[in-house]
Amino acid sequence: MRILGFKVRVIETLIAVNALVFLAAMVFPKIVIPLLAISPVTVFFMPWTILSSMFLHADLMHIIFNMMALYFFGLYLENLVGERNLLKVFFLGGIFGSICYVLGSILLGNLNSFAMGASGGIFAIAGALAVLRPNMRVFMIPIPIAMPLYIAVFVVMVLLSFMPGVAWQDHFGGLIVGVLFGLYWRNKVVEIIGVKEKYGYRFY
To answer: What percent of the chain has pLDDT over 70?
Structure first.
């Protein structure tokens, strides 16, 4: 991707935007957070929060862990499917995750709740990658042993989604989008580092 004539990687751009929004929220919390966070109560007259909430984070640990996951998972997926497809997964996963969060909160009666974070998009990236490279070995903090990616995503990350204060609906929405993209790419002709992989190719 080119910005002002300079070649800039999509992953670094997304991380930079997240960092800038995080700093703005730290300096002007009473303005930025109500304006960008998503809530079932406000989303219908503040529809941009479906997207803007993806770039807002609650605290330093929240953004650090999310950006680490975005960098490592996103960089690998970008190498497999390209920048444009990575952006599709990230944004569609994040948007669908936000919608799932709103619908889930309404059904559960949590109308005054609000959410923020890039987790929907990150779960989408992780889900797509887990379908394309299920047996790739990864480390998941704080577990000190490497595990197959499909276990890291569909077991560890899913279980962590049910921790207190975590918007699990957003995570599941993103994961669904990512898995669907992964299945689509797995069964089509995919450009992977300049080499075409056709039907029947086994992904590891």
So the answer is: 87
Q: In whole angstroms, what is the distance from residue 42 CA to residue 48 CA?
A: 10
**Predicted local confidence at residue 163, as pLDDT:** 86
* pLDDT tens, residue by residue, 92-146: 999 999 999 999 999 988 888 889 999 999 999 999 999 999 999 988 877 778 8
* Measured CA distances, 127 to 21, 41, 146, 177 (Å): 26, 29, 18, 8
- DSSP designation for 54: G
Helix (H, G, I), strand (E, B) or coil at 195: strand
Q: Are 178 and 125 in contact (CB under 8 A)?
A: yes
Give 3-state DSSP helix, strand, coil % of the chain, rounded to 5. 60, 10, 30
Confirm if 38 and 82 have CB atoms less than 8 A apart: no
Q: How far is 161 from 104, CA to CA, in rounded Å?
A: 14
Assigned token pair, 159: 């279980």
* Closest of 101, 132, 124, 100 to residue 174, by C-alpha: 124
Average pLDDT value for the chain:
87
**Domains of the chain by start residue, with CATH:** 9-197 (1.20.1540.10)
Residue 28 CA to residue 148 CA, distance in Å, equals: 41
Q: Roughly how many angstroms between the first and final C-alpha of the chain, as a whole number?
A: 28
- Within 10 A of 162 (CB to CB), how many other CB atoms are there? 9
pTM: 0.88
